[in-house]
Amino acid sequence: MIFLYLIVFIISFIVLILSSNWLIGALIKLAKFLGWKEFVVAFFTMALAGAIPNLSIGLSSVVHRVPQLSFAEIVGGNIVDLTVAIALAALISKKGLALASRTVQGSAIFTLIIAVLPLLLIADGILSQTDGLILILAFIIYIYWLFKKEDRFSKPYNRIKKPLTFKTAFQNIGILIGSIALLLLAAEGIVQSATFFSNNLDYSLVLIGTLIVGLGNAMPEILFGIQAARRHNDWLVIGNVMGSVIIPATLVLGLVAFLCPIKVTNFSPFAIGRVFLIMAAICFLFFLRTGQRVTKKEAVSLLFIYLLFVLAEFLFT
């Protein structure tokens, strides 16, 4: 069984790399055809699709009456997105990630607030149905803000010189859907095999959710960001990461809490994740707001934060 799961893990990783590359090409062409900014396209395609594994794990945890697993993996995934995904993309890019757009700058503030919001709501020991509705409302407020001004999503993407027809647009939609399906399938393979290895090493449910499942679900965002950075599509990188933080932390976690309130009798296993998520969110916002970019030096510091997080989880959980 160990050998079988190892093969599944390797094949899933290869599929992730290939499908993320196909997805980048389809997204860029659709951005041109629709006249939308790359940021919004990335948010509502890659990020929304990337939340499907979070949702499946959340619903499964509700069925099995262990919603704490969903909470743990979303916190862990958010930390990965705000550190590893951003850092690797910035390191791949020649001059770091240039993010001077007002939309990106404003979204960074939303990202910080939303990343921390579930931790504040569960401070009393329970993420109740009311808290779940608050998280869903936070998602609706962000979407309203994002689309409130037309210039945030209607400025054409002009890097593709060849005009696109309806036929080529539908072809790219097919590529997009197929790539997303492969990404989700590959991510599921990674999560399942990683969970199998963790269970055999007898680690806690919280540790599995925060480190293994959270990292597995964040793999599409990481690889998507690397591919986008190679093509100098910084908005795709940041739109994907912000969407991958905001959607699971609001829409998915809100739905899980509404269906099955998340009670935490012993908060100590979540304390490490809580501290490092706040640290990662603050550093991400600070880097973005000061120089309107994430430099390579700042990327290294984000990776260092994640390594400290992993070490702390293994030593103290």
Describe the structure in your own words.
- The chain is mainly α.
- It is 81% helix and 3% strand.
- The chain has a single domain, classed as Up-down Bundle (A middle domain of Talin 1), CATH 1.20.1420.
Task: Characterize this entry briefly.
By secondary structure, the protein is mostly helical. The protein has one domain: Up-down Bundle (A middle domain of Talin 1). It has ten helices and four strands.
Shape: globular
Distance between the termini: 27 Å
Number of domains: 1
Q: Rg from C-alpha positions?
A: 19 Å
* CATH level 3 topology: A middle domain of Talin 1
Specify the CATH architecture. Up-down Bundle
Beta-strand residue percentage = under 5%
- The tally of helices reads 10
Mean of all residue-level pLDDT scores: 79
How helix-rich are the residues, as a percent range? over 70%
As residue ranges, the low-confidence spans are: none
Order of helices and strands: HHHEHEHHHHEHEH
The chain-level structural class is mainly alpha
What about the largest sheet? 2 strands, antiparallel
CATH superfamily: NCX, central ion-binding region
State the CATH class: Mainly Alpha
Total E-strand runs: 4
